[in-house]
Amino acid sequence: MTMVPCGGPSRDEALCVEALPAFQDNYIWLLHDGQTAWVVDPGDAAPVKDTLVRRGLKLQGILLTHHHADHVGGVAALRAATGCRVLGPAGESLPGPVEPLHDGDVVPALGQAWRVLAVPGHTAGHIAYVNDAPPGTLRWLFCGDTLFSAGCGRLFEGTPAQMLASLDRLAALPDDTRICCAHEYTLSNLRFARAVEPDNTALAAHTVWCEARRAAGAPTLPSTLVTERQINPFLRCREPGVRRAVQQREPAADTDVAVFAALRRWKDGFR
Fold this sequence. Notes:
Blueprint: E1 2-4, E2 16-22, E3 26-32, E4 36-40, H1 45-55, E5 58-63, H2 69-72, H3 75-82, E6 85-89, E7 99-101, E8 106-109, E9 112-118, E10 127-131, E11 140-144, E12 147-148, E13 151-152, H4 160-171, E14 178-181, H5 186-196, H6 201-215, E15 223-224, H7 225-231, H8 240-249, H9 256-268
Parallel strand pairs: 4-5, 5-6, 6-7, 11-14
Antiparallel strand pairs: 1-2, 2-3, 3-4, 8-9, 9-10, 10-11, 12-13, 14-15
């Protein structure tokens, strides 16, 4: 487990964010202030329960981004054990009862206002959460399986146009936004990104950093939005070099959506 730097002047006043590994490559994100905690996408209850006991935290709420089992599988056990609130996207079938959330809703938690962003594509009703942080505090984005470091989610229910619009929406957030996605896919994604942009020096440097992190048993997350704009081919699909690489494989990809769709197909088959 990795503690990310707290966002305030002291531990008592800070928001702390911790990545709890689950399954083979999932992260459950735990947010706490030293006493009260919330979790994002608890696919497994066990690591959450263990951490709550070890840190002496009371679970107040669960935030869900979408309905896949590896994101919601621990909800029932955590709710039964703690009586916590559960909030999630109104447009998805979730293990109820769940307080439904819509685009633009705001969830107050741990002294922060968490704004709900509709980001369909991976699933039809996928949402993300971002805190509109005042100057001097950290901004966090919990984006589930929409945006990964150097990648994006597969299109299980949405269209390429929806996913591109969702990624554009996330890419418009401030540079310092910390990207807390739900899987440790970074090294695999970087291999693909380097196939798309072999001359991208920022990508090469970030790959070295991530390889060192994984070799040390540390996560590559959270990333930052400014980094992702430099290395993530799905945020860079309008860049001339990315378009050329895609069009060498699919010459008919002549619009932004068509380039994005072809890039996603390329990634789906990449080994």
